[in-house]
Design brief:
Length: 365
């Protein structure tokens, strides 16, 4: 990943240079160059039109200087080998799961982000003034808008959740604001009423004492690790820290956006198909789908097509999954759409946003 700092903008643009990191072994016959060219055009045309692709249409393309008869023979061979199929109501062909997989792994040319697109995305993420939840919610909206699919962002989780930083802020009278930052990016706030007023310099000293002595106020560790001076307001503050660190486990963990956009796709013009999609595309179901997919390490991207993700209800869908963060604390970015999704456009954008989020998480640590 390379970074560029454009003059007069104050924004760092992260340019991600990589290829798809998760490769699935492709079984079946080796395709000839001619067959691969035809398969690539079938997939591209179907992604664009959502209409089964006929041999007549392919013969009209300048990329294929072949007769209709030759193209029909090659289509028949591709279908026999499992790369394409055709609806019983149409003479045209559509890609099979195997055909999409071969396209993603071997044929497609990714559509990289432009410099302006990268700058816009990063600028939007830098505008977040709230905590982690606002940032993750905005990321889901940006990703959905960018790729035109359903975007899901899952909050970072850590194997061991621990305290990173405590801050105390003077308010009015005996009121003090407690701010707790955990190692998974969670930021919690709570107003406390203490036994007496405190000046800000006193609170700063007290917070520093807490930061030095609260080794691990996480649900996993218990209170026995607390070892601070016995001040009158210790119990109030320590109890609040524990409560916030426990409550962060129950925060909204998944952010979803773009359902209405996907339901406008041609696949859902039928009312029954739309109803089925709405029933299956709730946040809980999608999160379970993603969490039961192969583990995605930070910096990697997986593409699961149709039946590859093992969920019978989602066999007509594909999902692109990437991870952000590090091995200690990491979250998930995913885009889900019909198998006809625009893979060349979607894959690099999911990857870029995940890499950008990793960089931003590193900046705030």
């Amino acid at each position: 990943m390379h970074s560029i700092d454009p003059k007069n903008h104050g924004i760092t643009i992260y340019i991600i240079i990589s290829t798809l990191t998760h490769r699935v072994p492709i079984e079946g016959n080796v395709l000839t160059q001619r067959q691969e060219s035809i398969l690539e055009l079938v997939v591209d045309e179907y992604i664009e039109s959502a209409t089964p692709v006929s041999s007549r249409l392919l013969a009209s393309r300048q990329e294929l200087p072949l007769s209709s008869a030759t193209i029909r023979n090659e289509l028949a061979q591709l279908e026999e080998n499992g790369y394409i199929t055709h609806p019983y109501t149409s003479a045209g062909r559509i890609p099979s799961d195997q055909g999409y997989r071969h396209y993603v792994e071997s044929l497609m040319d990714e559509k990289p982000l432009s410099f302006d697109e990268m700058r816009t995305i990063e600028h939007q993420l830098h505008q977040v003034n709230g905590g982690l939840d606002e940032w993750l919610s905005l990321t889901a909206t940006i990703l959905s808008t960018t790729v035109g699919g359903i975007a899901m962002v899952i909050r970072p989780s850590a194997e061991t959740t621990s305290l990173k930083h405590v801050q105390l802020v003077e308010l009015n009278g005996t009121s003090v604001m407690l701010v707790v930052v955990m190692n998974n990016g969670f930021i919690g706030q709570k107003i406390l009423n203490l036994s007496r007023p405190y000046l800000q310099n006193e609170l700063n000293i007290y917070a520093e004492t807490l930061n030095q002595n609260l080794k691990d106020p996480s649900p996993q560790s218990g209170r026995q690790s607390i070892n601070i001076n016995n001040k009158i307001d210790d119990n109030i503050i320590i109890d609040a820290i524990f409560q916030l660190s426990i409550n962060q486990q129950g925060q909204h963990e998944a952010y979803l956006d773009g359902l209405s956009t996907v339901l406008n796709q041609p696949e859902f013009t039928d009312v029954n198909q739309m109803r089925e999609a709405i029933e299956n595309l709730d946040a809980y179901h999608l999160r379970m789908l993603i969490e039961h997919s192969p583990k995605v390490e930070p910096g990697t991207t997986h593409v699961l097509i149709g039946e590859e993700h093992g969920d019978e209800l989602m066999r007509e869908w594909s999902v692109i999954i990437s991870s952000f963060g590090d091995r200690i604390s990491n979250g998930t970015v995913a885009v889900l759409g019909p198998k006809r999704m625009d893979y060349p456009r979607s894959i690099p954008r999911v990857r870029y946003i995940a890499e950008l989020m990793s960089a931003l998480m590193y900046e705030v640590r």
